[in-house]
Design goal:
Blueprint lengths: L2 H8 L3 E6 L5 H14 L6 E4 L8 H13 L5 E6 L5 H13 L4 E5 L16 H13 L10 E6 L10 H14 L3 E6 L3 H13 L6 E5 L5 H10 L7 H10 L3 H21 L4 E5 L5 H9 L7
Parallel strand pairs: 1-2, 1-8, 2-3, 3-4, 4-5, 5-6, 6-7, 7-8
The structure holds flavin-adenine dinucleotide.
Length: about 300
Amino acid sequence: MHIKDILAAAKGPTRSFEFFPPRSPVAVNELQEALNMLAPWRPDFVSVTYGAGGSTRDRTQALVGELRQSDVFDPVPHLTCVGHTESEIMTLLESYAAAGVCNVLALRGDLPGQEFPEGDFKTAADLVRFVRRFNERGLHPSPQGFGIGVACFPEGHPATPNRMLEMDHLKAKVDAGADYLCTQVFFDNHDFHDFRARCELAGIRAPIFAGILPLTQPNNIRRMAELAAGSRYPARLLRALQRVGDDADAFRQVGIHHAVMQCADLLDHDVAGLHFYTLNKAASTVQVLRGLGFSSDR
Ligand SMILES: Cc1cc2nc3c(=O)[nH]c(=O)nc-3n(C[C@H](O)[C@H](O)[C@H](O)COP(=O)(O)OP(=O)(O)OC[C@H]3O[C@@H](n4cnc5c(N)ncnc54)[C@H](O)[C@@H]3O)c2cc1C
């Protein structure tokens, strides 16, 4: 379903899950287990990451194709444009359109080094424009074409320290044709609420899905700080994690409790949707969904 229809059908905040394409047979089994556990929770959509520069192109496509075949998961492929030519992106869009994929998340992707790699795209806004032209040319079997999501950063993107300029760049993506925004992981809802208010002030009206990651292992903390380019952990959460020390089960419980409280507050504040970064594991996401009183097999 096009993202607009997903939102209309949900009649309230959506729930969705992110997966990455597995690399090894063991990882394939882990993902399958996660999919089996999460299927009864009937996500409104699921997303599949893409390695910048096309490093996971085939694996992302394969996983999206498999999910598309299921009658449970509506996959949204991530698509990064850095280092890609227009014809490479066109081929991917054509294959997704032929497979009946209805939405894509249009991203720039992280730069592999200091040099900007050769390619036809500089920013995610270029990719949004490209997908919109694809839609306008009637290349998607659905008259609505692809729904287009873009990334946003409640704590700010580290490459643009000027936060006003950053909002201009975000607005450019929405004006270019993005239908919705999905946030980077954040752990302090103040950042989200303030960001959403700044979007309103900037005239950005697209729905914003909140990216949630239940912290379940001590190494998640440093890893997310690296991947999410500087995640800010509220002192209250750090203190709670410090108190439990090396007790792995207690650590997990603290992480899940924090995610439940975060999500409950977001639901109280009319969030458009909760998007769970599952890291291809289901147990903690399921606990959070239960903690929120959601039911499976809705
Ligand atoms: C929800 C989500 C999912 C993600 N999934 C993936 C994934 O699957 N694969 C992956 O590789 N990465 C992924 N990322 C990471 C993302 O690709 C990087 O954070 C990247 O650095 C920014 O991508 P963007 O799409 O926001 O780029 P852009 O919107 O292009 O912004 C990139 C930077 O350029 C600046 N900028 C934008 N326009 C201009 C302009 N006209 N002039 C000057 N500066 C400008 C922005 O302010 C920002 O600092 C994801 C991030 C999020 C939040």
